[in-house]
Automatic annotation (TrEMBL):
Phylogenetic classification of the source organism: Bacteria, Bacillati, Bacillota, Bacilli, Bacillales
Entry protein name: Teicoplanin resistance protein VanZ
Record key words, sorted: Membrane, Transmembrane, Transmembrane helix
Keyword Transport in annotation: no
Organism of provenance: Paenibacillus ihbetae
Regions that span the bilayer: 7-28, 78-97, 104-123, 135-156
Amino acid sequence: MKPWPKFTLIVLYGGYLYVLLKIILFKFGPVDASLLMKQLARAMQHPEMMQNRLEFANLTPFVTIKQNIHRISDLHHMINLLGNVVIFMPNGIFMGLLTKGKALGALIASFAVSLALECSQLLFSMGSFDVDDLILNSFGGLLGYFGYWLMLQLFTDPSSNQGTVRASNRPAT
């Protein structure tokens, strides 16, 4: 089995980033560039709004994570905790596929995408900045990368320089 063409992976990664934007910034609503422009213009005209939002941001690591763990039986808190990890697992997988890089690269890329989204929430007044989201998203990206790495270890032929998938040892039926 041949690896996917890089162009296909880039298009799929772009689609994944679109879905992230739709979920995190637009809260499952339609992606609306004109709304972003209006929000940006409003933020530029009234910088005190951003300062006010920053005052309510969580800048202390592990505060929200601890709250979510203590209230894990509440569906909202469980989704917030696990959702922030799971939603970034594909990012780690894509980083493994696109860069053939190391775990550190997947971690940095996941952190960078998460930071961009968190700052966008602050800038566009479309959510709240939470440092714990950065931690959970980065962890999710790292988990995704390790899932990718594990699949490589299990299913690629070590004698092949092409990274081809091992043939099954089961007889054909």
